[in-house]
Design goal:
Radius of gyration: 25 Å
Strand order of the largest sheet: 6-9-10-3-11-12
Structural class: alpha/beta
Shape: globular
Distance between the termini: 36 Å
Largest sheet: 6 strands, mixed
Strand content: 15-25%
Length: about 525
């Protein structure tokens, strides 16, 4: 962690911020300050008020009470365009880049540099000037990215840097980052953190919103905690610990962040994978999965772990090998529809684009995977409502009603709705892709408990995760992928973050410290 340029040179002051929605006080007289060259960590559970506070700063909402000062001058932020004029820029978790355009075109979209000739009112794009300006930003922050290739060919970490560079090109002095590392692997996080360090040294003020407390303590200078719309405390990062921050967030000590439920593991495999291959992502993969067992897939980006999990649900094509379910070979090409019919469920990491029907309500999202259980010539409304309400109650899904649109739920509750959908379908195997990405501490623990209950009931679970503590904490075994192959199949007694990380980066037959 670098030192800030100045702990006293105030860049932003938000005083007594209050925002009310119908029947709800979303923010209750919250104060926030930010200095030049400071990374302020903003944490709190979903619903704590973080998004509302940042949307006020970004000009999306107007506060009901309170004042804002930027560089010592009081101002009213009228709208998002005005916020940008004031030097405020927000980079959301869901990236807003256009994948078929290159980095230059994305950075300057809507603000292209043009050259005019004579009295002509028509300008010609000056690509060289845009390239030089973008390179000047990236060189100043010691970052090497190919600006000429389509965005889709860049890594997620590089895309995040391009989004931030676009903000810098708009002369941002206050940068808001919303869950910036949620989709990044470890090496991409380091690349981003190095970039943020240099922004801090250049005097940019950064508000960093994240649920990953360990990374918050690594990158931040000061941490501020919201709970139930109120500011409950703040402290210097060097005085904070994960446990102390969690206690402030939830109002009580969270004794166990990764609860491990012990279930009876069956003797015969429910799933047997033999010599499975993908045209380019993985090859000759063999493993078994038993009832009551939680297996984790670990590895770096590009290791093949995500493609392997998706191939088991029929999303990715299989070019060789076989899959047996309950001792019977799955014949023909596996598709998501046939996987569901045979008792395999899949919860994707990207809830919004792949997992949920955002414009439909909670009831629809829960019942959609098992409509046959509700049909007698037509879908019966009363049983569908009863099923949805029973899962809302059982999983403690926080929603005003089963008719609430899915897009309006918090990340943790969206995850629970997807889980309810598959529990209603009664699968034999549940495949979770990044099961706790972007959800708060309490919601994570609830999801872990639910996974434990699933295996206690006799189903089996596969978890694909980039979070080493998660893999170590709740899995019975972890299969570590490296370069499309299995580098290690680790039983629980050998699980540690160090061991998983070791096999993720090496093909050596020996483990850490020379152990096999």
């Amino acid at each position: 962690m670098s030192e800030t340029i100045s702990n006293n040179e105030s860049l932003l002051e938000m005083h007594e911020m209050t925002k009310r929605f119908t029947g709800v006080v979303a923010l209750d007289h919250v104060d926030l300050t930010l200095s030049r060259g400071e990374i302020l960590i903003l944490v709190g559970e979903n619903g704590a008020g973080k998004s509302t506070l940042m949307k006020i700063l970004a000009g999306v909402y107007r506060p009901d009470e309170g004042t804002i000062r930027i560089n010592g001058e009081q101002t009213e932020i009228r709208n998002p365009g005005h916020a940008k004029e004031l030097g405020i820029s927000i980079v959301f978790q869901e990236q807003a880049l256009i994948p078929d355009l290159d980095a230059i075109e994305n950075i300057f979209i809507g603000r292209e540099i043009t050259t005019t000739f004579g009295d002509s009112y028509m300008g010609v794009l000056n690509r060289r000037a845009m390239v030089n300006k973008a390179n000047a930003f990236l060189e100043a922050f010691a970052t090497d990215i190919d600006l000429t290739v389509p965005i889709r060919e860049l890594g997620l970490g590089q895309r995040q840097i391009i989004e931030i560079t676009r903000s810098l090109a708009e002369n941002a002095s206050i940068l808001i980052l919303d869950e910036p590392t949620a989709a990044l692997e470890d090496f991409e996080r380091k690349q981003l953190f190095d970039f943020l360090d240099r922004l801090r040294e250049a005097g940019i003020g950064i508000i960093y919103v994240s649920h990953d407390l360990e990374e918050c303590l690594e990158i931040g200078d000061r941490i501020m905690v919201l709970r139930d719309g109120k500011k409950v405390g703040e402290m210097a990062v060097h005085d904070a610990s994960v446990d102390s921050v969690i206690e402030m967030m939830v109002g009580r000590t969270l004794a166990e962040q990764y609860p491990k439920v012990t279930a009876s593991i069956g003797s015969d495999p429910i799933l047997q994978v033999s010599n499975l291959s993908h045209r380019k992502a993985f090859s000759n993969i063999s493993f078994s999965l038993h009832r009551g067992e939680i297996i984790g897939f670990g590895g770096l980006a590009g290791s093949g772990k995500f493609e392997l999990a998706r191939s088991l649900f029929g999303v990715e094509p299989i070019t060789a090998g076989s899959i047996e379910l309950d001792g019977k070979a799955i014949s023909g090409n596996l598709t998501p529809q046939s996987a569901i019919q045979q008792g395999i469920a899949f919860l994707p990491a990207d809830r919004k684009s792949e997992g949920l029907f955002l414009e439909h309500d909670v009831q629809y999202n829960i019942s959609i995977a098992n409509l046959k259980a509700l049909i007698k010539g037509w879908i019966r409304g009363a049983p569908e409502r009863q099923v949805a309400q029973s899962y809302v109650d059982t999983l403690d899904i926080k929603t005003p009603s089963i008719h609430q649109m899915a897009r309006h739920l918090s990340g943790g509750n969206q995850q629970k709705v997807m889980l309810a959908r598959w529990l209603f379908a009664k699968p034999k195997i549940l495949i979770f892709e990044e099961p706790t990405r972007g959800i708060d501490v309490n919601a994570k623990v609830e999801v872990y408990h639910l996974i434990g209950e699933i295996v206690k009931e006799g189903s089996a679970v596969i978890i694909v995760s980039s979070e080493l503590p998660e893999l170590e904490g709740i899995c019975d075994r972890v299969i570590v992928m490296h370069d499309g192959m299995i580098a290690a199949d680790l039983p629980r007694e050998q699980l540690s973050q160090e061991t998983i990380a070791y096999y993720a980066v090496t093909t050596s037959g020996e483990g850490p410290n020379g152990n096999h």
